[in-house]
Amino acid sequence: MDEAITKWLDQIAENKLNPEDVERSLRYAKDLEQGLAKIRTYSQGVSIFGSARLPMNGKWCKLAEQLGYKLAQNGHPVITGGGPSIMEAANKGAYEAGGRSIGLNIQLAHEQHINQYVTDEMEFHYFFARKVMLTMSSKVYVFFPGGFGTLDEFSEILILMQENKMPKMPMFLIGKSYWKPLDRFFASKMQRAGTINAADRKIYRITDNIDEVVEAANKIGHRSIYDNLYNDKKSNFKLI
Hints:
Elements: H1 2-15, H2 19-39, E1 45-49, H3 59-73, E2 78-80, H4 86-96, E3 101-106, E4 120-124, H5 127-136, E5 138-143, H6 148-162, E6 171-174, H7 176-193, E7 205-207, H8 211-220
Parallel strand pairs: 1-2, 1-5, 2-3, 3-4, 5-6, 6-7
Helix pairs in contact: 2-5, 3-4
């Protein structure tokens, strides 16, 4: 490790980075290091994404709570961004089922605060570090209706799977009425223009049935906390 640090310091000098760049890179590294330390304390579970603005008594939050409960009943850690609405509902379900309910939070100018239903939490400064951990934490990904943030998280994991930068694990979009128009855009515009192909649209599944998520997680099974998919250098995907 000392040799690696020395090499890094040499590279900083060679690249003539200014003090602000060095400080920035250290902040990036700290977020990533602390995130990796946190996710090594639980086995890969199910990451649930969705809006921070939907009402808790609405149908989507109720469905997210039911999913969190069922996943925890089956022994799967439930991971969210730790905020309100969809995230809080999923954490609540897992918490009330006595399961591992994890919140990987980020400080925002509005909306975001850690919800009361997490058993494990961490706060990030940078979106990219948080997204890395939300991805590496999981064996199944679930996207409830959401805004730009949810779409960003969906798109990033989608492109990583498309380009074989991570294993193709189950990805669900919950809410046919919400997500089907996006899928039609992919088909009618992007696929027709040749910017994606039909196989790319098979990476994800649009459904209203949360039991499909539980079944997918059960099929993969329960991995040891020391057995993260991204540790497997023999896999046929390029590690992120």
